[in-house]
Amino acid sequence: MIETRWGITVPFAGVPLDEHPELLAHVEALGYHDVWSSETPAGTDGFTTLALAAPVTERLRLATGIVNPFTRGPAVLAQTAAALQEASGGRFVLGIGSSSDVVVERFNGMTFEKPLTRVREAVESLRPVLSVPAGKGFGGLRLERPVTEPVPIVLAALRAKMLGLAGELADGAFTNFLPLSGLPQVVAAHRAGGAGELACRFFIIPGDPDAGMETARRMFTAYGSVPVYAAFFRWLGWAEQLDPMVQAYTSGDRDRALAVAPEELIREIFLLGSTDEIRARLQQFVDGGITTVVLAPMGEPPATLELLEALAPGNLGE
C-alpha cells in the first residue's frame, strides 16, 4: 500500500521569491512531505522555486508539477533534473506532461501535436540518462555529472491514455482540476496501466463559500475552456453542462462564459469553506485513491500560511 503524502504548491502567491526559503523551511517543519512547483504561462518556471528549496530543507521531496517536453528538449530536461537531484541530495522528482496548445503554440510558437507520443518519447529518452548506472539518451547523450540516485518520473495525466501511460512507463501520475465524482474513473484508468503514485493538486479557497465561488468560477472558466481540459471534463461526463461555457468563451463572450459556467462541477473541483470542510473533502479524495495530496491555497499571506498550518499532516486528525 502506498503511503499518503502531503505536499504544497510553490510559488506562494504574493510572496517574493527571495522570501521563499524561510517559508519553505517552515513548511518542512510543519511535517509536509513534498513541494510541487507550478509552471504557468505567465508565472514562475517549474525549476527555480525548487532550487530555492534545496539548500534550506533536508527532507522535503522536490517535484516539478509540471514541465513539458515541447518547450524543453530531452537534453535540457535531463541536465536540469540531474542538477536538482544532486543539489537536493537525491530528493528531486521530474514531473512532465504535454501541457496544452495554448502554452506550446500561442506562447512559445511551437507545434502542439501527438502529445501522447511526445511524452512517451520523452520518458524513453530520459529514463536511461537519469538511471543508475546511467545509459545513453536521445542522440547518445551522456551527462558529465551523472546522477548517483535514479530520478523518479511522474506524468501529468488527465484522460485514459495518458493515465495508462503513466502506469506503464512512469513512477506515478499527477492530475489536476479533478471533480470528486470523476475520481473513480481516473483511478481506474491509472491502475489499468499499472501501479504507482497518483498525485492531485487541489485549489483551496477558505472562508465564505459564496465569495470563494466567484474566484473559482473565474479560474475555471479560463482553464476549463482550454481544449485539453475541456476534453477531460467531457470524458468525465460533463459535456452537456460544460459546452455552453466553452462555446461562449471561445467566441469571445467572456461575460456569458462566466454566467453559464457549471457551478456543480466547479464545487466538485475547488475546495471551499471552513478548514474542517476542506479537510473532510481532502479525506474523501484520499479514501478514493489519491496517494499524494498537493495543496494550492488561493489567497495572500498570512492567510495562506495559516491554512497550511491548519492542514499540516500532524493536524489532520484534530
Secondary-structure blueprint of this entry?
Layout: E1 5-10, H1 20-29, E2 34-37, H2 48-53, E3 61-64, H3 74-87, E4 92-96, H4 101-106, H5 115-129, E5 153-156, H6 160-169, E6 172-176, H7 183-193, E7 197-206, H8 209-224, H9 227-235, H10 239-250, H11 254-260, H12 263-269, E8 271-273, H13 275-288, E9 292-297, H14 303-310
Parallel strand pairs: 1-2, 1-9, 2-3, 3-4, 4-5, 5-6, 6-7, 7-8, 7-9
Helix pairs in contact: 3-5, 5-6, 6-7, 9-10, 10-11
Describe the structure.
Helix content is 46%, strand content 15%. With 318 residues, it is an alpha/beta fold. It folds into two domains: 5-205 and 274-315, TIM Barrel (Alpha-Beta Barrel), CATH 3.20.20.30; 208-270, no CATH class. The chain has an eight-stranded parallel barrel with strand order 1-2-3-4-5-6-7-9, surrounded by seven helices. Helix 10 runs antiparallel to helix 11 (254-260). The two termini are 24 Å apart.
Summarize it:
With about 325 residues, the chain is of the alpha/beta class. Helix content is about 45%, strand content about 15%. The mean pLDDT is about 95.
Radius of gyration: 19 Å
Number of strands: 9
CATH class of the largest domain: Alpha Beta
SS summary, helix count:
14
User: Structural class, please?
Assistant: alpha/beta
Keywords:
318 residues; alpha/beta; TIM Barrel; 14 helices
